[in-house]
Design goal:
2 strands, about 475 residues, 16 helices, heme, two-stranded antiparallel ribbon, Cyt_c_oxidase_cbb3_su1, translocase, globular, about 70% helix, mainly alpha
Length: about 475
C-alpha cells in the first residue's frame, strides 16, 4: 500500500463517526456495567422503577454497544480507510459527501429512536433485532446509504486493485443487508386487525421457523459486525502502524472465502436441544467446528505479520492493542466451536459461560481493535499528536485485567451452573434448587461487575486521551508508521 499523502483526503464524515463511537461506547458500556452490578446486587433494579430494571436496560446495552459503538467504529474506519486504499477523496464528489453526511445524521436519528422505544418497552423481543418495523425501514435506508458510499468510492477510485480490507467491508454490507431483511420481515398488526398500537408487529415466521431465521441472523450479526468488519480494520491498521506488509495475501483471500461460506451456516448451534430438527442442530455444530480454519487463518496471518518485529510490542501501545485483539479473536473463535459441540453445550447452554464467551470476543477483539483504529486515525485526521503514551499503556493493562476477570468469572460461574443443574441425588431427584445456584454464583457476579467496571474506566481513559489530543501539539505532516506521542 502506498502512503497516498499527495491526495487531500476529506475526513469530515469519519470525524463525525469517531465522535459517535466515543459517545455510544460510554453509554453502551456504562449501561452494561450497571446491569452487571444489578446481577450481583439485585436492589439496583429498583433505582428508577421499571425503567432501571435489567429487562429494560439489557436491550439498550446490546444495541448501544453493537449498533452504537461497533457500527460507529466500523463506519469511522470505512470513511478513513476507503479513501486511502482507493486513492480517492470524498471531496471529489459532492454527491458522495452529501450521502456520507446524510448517512451519519439518519444513523443518529435511528439511535435516538431506538433509545426511546427500547426504554418504553417497545420491542420485537428478538435478539439483536428488537427494533419495530418503522425503525427497521429507516435502518434499511441508512444501510443503503452506506452501500452507495462504498460502491460510489470504488467507482471513482484511482487504485484499481481492491485491497483485502475493501473485500471485508463489502462483505459486511452485503451480509448484513441480506440477513437483516429476511429476519425482520414482519406484519404490522394494526393495519391487519385494526387493533393495538400502530407500531406493533408480528414476525412473518412462526415457531421453530422463526427461531431458525432469528439465529441465522443473530449469529451472523456476530459474523458480519463483530468479525468481518473488524478483520477489515486490522488488515489495514496493523501493517500501517507496524510498517510490516501482511504476511500472506493468499491466506487473507482463503480466510475471506472460508468465512463467507462457513459462517453463514453456523447459527444452528444456538438451537441445540430445541424443537428444530436434529440434523439442523448437527449441521450448526459441524459448520462451527469447520469455522476454526478460516478464523484462525485470519488471526495467524495477522500475528505472522509481526514476524521479526515483535520488539515493537515493547515500544508501541497500539501494537499491543492490535496483537492482543487478534489473540482474543483466536481464543474466542476456538471457544465458540467448543461450546457448539453437543456434549459441551449440554452443560454450557443457558449458563453464564455464554456471556463470558461473547464478552471475551467483544471486549478483547472488537473493543481493542476499534480503540486502536481510532488512536491510529487521530493524528492523521486532526493533525495532532496523541496526548499521552503512558495513559495508553495504563489503559491497556487496566482493560486487559478487566477482560480476564470478566471471562474467567463467567467460565467458573457457567460450569458451576451447568453441573449443579444436572446434579442428582441417589434417588434421581435434582440435588439443588434454582435458588441454590443463584446463591453460589454471587461472588462470581461481583468479580464480573468489577471486571466490567475496570474496562469502563479504561474506556474513559481512552476518550480522555482522544479529546485531549485534539488540543495537543499540531503536526505538519502525518507520521509514516507509529503515531507520534506526547508524554
Amino acid at each position: 500500500m502506498q502512503p497516498g499523502n499527495a491526495l487531500n483526503y476529506d475526513f469530515s464524515v469519519a470525524k463525525l463517526f469517531m465522535f459517535s463511537t466515543l459517545i455510544f461506547g460510554i453509554v453502551g458500556m456504562g449501561i452494561g456495567t450497571l446491569i452487571a452490578f444489578q446481577m450481583a446486587y439485585p436492589d439496583l433494579n429498583y433505582l428508577a422503577g421499571e425503567y432501571a430494571t435489567f429487562s429494560r436496560l439489557r436491550p439498550l446495552h446490546t444495541n448501544g454497544v453493537v449498533y452504537g459503538f461497533m457500527l460507529s467504529g466500523i463506519w469511522a474506519t470505512w470513511y478513513y480507510v476507503g479513501q486511502r486504499v482507493l486513492k480517492v477523496s470524498m471531496s471529489e464528489s459532492k454527491f458522495l459527501m452529501f450521502i456520507g453526511k446524510l448517512h451519519f445524521w439518519l444513523y443518529i436519528l435511528i439511535i435516538a429512536l431506538a433509545v426511546i422505544t427500547l426504554f418504553a418497552g417497545i420491542t420485537t423481543s428478538k435478539e439483536y433485532a428488537e427494533l419495530e418495523w418503522p425503525i427497521d425501514i429507516l435502518v434499511v435506508i441508512c444501510w443503503v446509504l452506506w452501500g452507495v458510499s462504498i460502491f460510489g468510492l470504488i467507482g471513482i477510485r484511482r487504485e484499481k486493485t481492491l485491497y483485502v480490507s475493501i473485500w471485508y467491508y463489502i462483505a459486511t454490507f452485503l451480509g448484513v443487508a441480506m440477513l437483516y431483511l429476511f429476519n425482520n420481515m414482519a406484519v404490522p398488526t394494526y393495519f391487519v386487525t385494526g387493533l393495538g398500537d400502530w407500531w406493533h408487529s408480528v414476525s412473518m415466521y412462526a415457531g421453530s421457523n422463526d427461531a431458525l431465521v432469528q439465529w441465522w441472523w443473530g449469529h451472523n450479526a456476530v459474523a458480519f459486525v463483530f468479525t468481518v468488519a473488524i478483520v477489515a480494520q486490522i488488515y489495514y491498521f496493523l501493517p500501517k502502524e507496524s510498517g510490516q506488509p501482511i504476511f500472506s495475501y493468499k491466506l487473507s483471500v482463503f480466510a475471506f472465502w472460508g468465512l463467507m461460506f462457513v459462517y453463514l451456516w453456523a447459527g444452528g448451534h444456538h438451537l441445540i436441544y430445541s424443537a428444530v430438527p436434529d440434523w439442523m442442530q448437527t449441521m450448526g455444530s459441524i459448520f462451527s467446528i469447520v469455522l476454526i480454519l478460516p478464523s484462525w487463518g485470519s488471526a495467524i496471518n495477522i500475528l505472522l505479520t509481526m514476524k521479526g518485529e515483535w520488539g515493537q510490542l515493547r515500544e508501541s501501545p497500539l501494537i499491543k492493542f492490535m496483537i492482543l485483539a487478534s489473540t482474543f479473536y483466536m481464543f474466542s473463535t476456538l471457544e465458540g466451536p467448543i461450546l457448539s459441540i453437543k456434549s459441551v453445550n449440554a452443560i454450557a447452554h443457558f449458563t453464564d459461560w455464554i456471556p463470558g464467551h461473547v464478552h471475551d470476543g467483544t471486549l478483547g477483539w472488537v473493543g481493542f481493535m476499534t480503540m486502536a483504529a481510532l488512536y491510529h486515525m487521530t493524528p492523521r485526521v486532526f493533525k495532532r499528536e496523541i496526548y499521552s503514551k503512558s495513559l495508553m499503556e495504563a489503559q491497556f493493562w487496566i482493560q486487559t485485567t478487566g477482560i480476564v476477570l470478566y471471562f474467567a468469572s463467567m467460565w467458573i460461574a457457567g460450569i458451576t451452573q451447568g453441573m449443579m443443574w444436572r446434579a442428582t441425588d441417589e434417588f434421581g431427584n435434582l440435588a439443588y434448587t434454582f435458588i441454590d445456584t443463584v446463591t453460589v454464583l454471587e461472588p462470581y457476579y461481583w468479580i464480573r461487575a468489577i471486571g466490567g467496571l475496570l474496562y469502563l474506566v479504561g474506556f474513559f481513559m481512552f476518550c480522555y486521551n482522544i479529546m485531549k489530543s485534539l488540543g495537543a501539539r499540531k503536526i505538519e505532516s502525518e507520521p509514516a508508521s507509529a503515531s507520534p506521542m506526547g508524554n
